[in-house]
Structure formats: C-alpha cells, structure tokens
Design a protein that fits this description.
alpha/beta, TIM Barrel, 2 domains, five-stranded antiparallel beta sheet, 10 helices, 15 strands, 20% strand
Length: 302
C-alpha cells in the first residue's frame, strides 16, 4: 500500500463546470491545478473566483500555473508557414532546433525577435498556445519573465487571496522575486524545473525552494539524454523531498482503455526515487480521467 502518495489533477475547460466539479470533488484528488495556458471563457478574475469557490467547497488546495518563459506559439500557422511567431522575443545562438509536441524537430535558420524562421516547414499545423522548445542552445528571452496574461492572473490571485502559484521554467531567484513582489506577503510558489538552467538553479537551492519535476519539457530540453534526465530527477527530489512529479503519467490512457505496464513501471521508479506527489497532465484529465482514477487506485494499492 502506498498511503503516503497524493495526486494533483489538472482542471479541464471551464466551459463544462459539471466536469470541473467532478474532478475537484473526486476522493483520490488531493490538490487541483489550473493551467493558464489553456483558454477560459471568462476573465482571469472570474476564472480564479469560480475555481477558488469550487476548491474551497471541496477543501482542495488550488494551484494557478503561470507560463513564465515557456515558449508558446502566438499565431496559428499552417504547415507551409516556415515562420513561427512566439509569445516571447528570443535570442539564441545557432545552430539550434525547434522541437514540437509531436516529437519532430526542425533546424532554425534565423531569429528576428519573436519570429523564428525554420529551414523546413513543420509537418503539422501549429495551433495558437502550443508549446515549443529550442534545443541545442538555450534561448534567452528578451522581455520580462511574466507574460501579460501571467500578470492578469497574479492580480486576480492577489485580489482573491489565492496563494498557491506554479511558475513555469524557473531558472533563478529573480523569477520567484517578481512573483513575490506582485503578490505581496506570503505566497507558496512551486518552481517548475523544465530546463538545464532550472536544474542547476534547483541544485543550488537545497531546502530553499519548492519544486516540480516537469518531465515532459525537461526531457526535451535535455535533448533526450537518459543519464542527464535521471541525474536531474534525483537532484530535484534531493532539493525538495516534497517535490511534485509531473507529466507522462498514465499517458497510454490517451490511446487505450487500460494503462500500459510502462506506465506502472514509471510510477514505481519515481516512487523508489522518493517522489510522493504526482500530477496528471491536461490531456489525461480531459480525455481519460475516469480511467486514470482506476489506474491510480491500482498503483497505490500495490
């Protein structure tokens, strides 16, 4: 029995509050997270207010996940469009590649602010809001860490006294300072470790920060290097014994009715490494929540 484990769910679209309530109220869910990278039919203030009321009613901690320096597609583009417009202007030393969520990579030919020109067009259309990664050389964002939308959600959190904030691609203390300055007073920040610089920062911050191993982006940023990934995961849990293990959990349920053996083996490995808090991603909560809850019960009962 793994009674010491807890699970965080990602809240799906607020267009269906019945499903939102079902997820928040589920007895296997200890905490809930709202990804501000997804669209909401409401303003940031109204969105946070609705979620806070639901979470408070069911006595579940609510996390608001800011996007920070995470690179996302700013303008929808068809597959023949060889220029990708991002949410941040960047500077990157070439050669470098752009990695997409379908696992493909394309060489970058040049960069002009937030416009990244590719040597070959991507295989699939790029939807607005889709996250991408630059691999080969770490890019430098040329504007502020927080986006305008991040600032709007932080202001909403401040007004409504929602104090749990997840911060994407944290790489230094200044990233945390800007959130603390805006929120004022005590704020509980979970630093999502998703890059090489983030791993270094976490390793230098033992006992100082709360962490999440955001494995999907982190594995891409580490260029699929298995040893570096294992070292990073061990470093994160050493820095924060209560670190959250996120991404790639029960992802086989997006394609099948029962979890793969690899899903269970992955959780067992992370458990043996010391992780006790786990978080389900957007897609699993959107399309396979009930199946994931059954699989979670099997895992924690073993």
């Amino acid at each position: 029995m793994k009674k010491d484990c807890s699970l965080i769910a990602t809240i799906p679209s607020l267009s269906n509050m019945h499903v939102v309530g079902k997820i928040i109220s589920h007895p296997s869910i200890a905490e809930v997270r709202f990804n501000t990278g997804t669209r909401s039919p409401y303003s940031p203030l109204k969105t946070v207010q609705m979620l806070a009321e639901k979470a408070d009613f069911f006595k579940k901690p609510l996390w608001i996940d800011l996007k920070g320096r995470q690179l996302r597609v700013a303008v929808w583009a068809d597959p023949l469009y060889e220029c990708v417009e991002l949410n941040h202007p960047i500077k990157v030393k070439l050669p470098a590649k752009m990695a997409f969520r379908n696992g493909t990579t394309v060489n970058i030919s040049s960069v002009d602010g937030n416009k990244v020109f590719l040597m070959n067009p991507p295989r699939e259309a790029l939807g607005k809001g889709q996250s991408v990664n630059i691999i080969g050389n770490t890019p430098e964002i040329l504007d502020d860490y927080l986006t305008e939308q991040d600032l709007a959600y932080l202001e909403a959190c401040k007004q409504l006294n929602v104090r749990n904030i997840m911060a994407s691609f944290v790489e230094n203390k200044e990233d945390l300072n800007v959130i603390e300055d805006i929120m004022g007073g005590k704020v509980n920040i979970c630093s999502k470790i998703e890059s090489k610089k983030g791993v270094i920062f976490a390793g230098q911050s033992w006992g100082f920060i709360r962490c999440m191993a955001a494995r999907d982006d982190l594995y891409i940023e580490l260029e699929g290097n298995y040893k570096k990934m294992m070292d990073a995961l061990k470093s994160i849990i050493a820095t924060d014994p209560k670190a959250i293990c996120a991404s790639r959990i029960f992802t086989s349920l997006e394609r099948r009715d029962a979890p793969s053996l690899a899903d269970y083996e992955d959780l067992e490995m992370m458990y043996s490494m010391g992780y006790r808090r786990f978080m389900l991603c957007d897609n699993v909560c959107n399309y396979a929540f009930d199946k994931a809850m059954k699989a979670w019960e099997v895992f924690t009962s073993a």
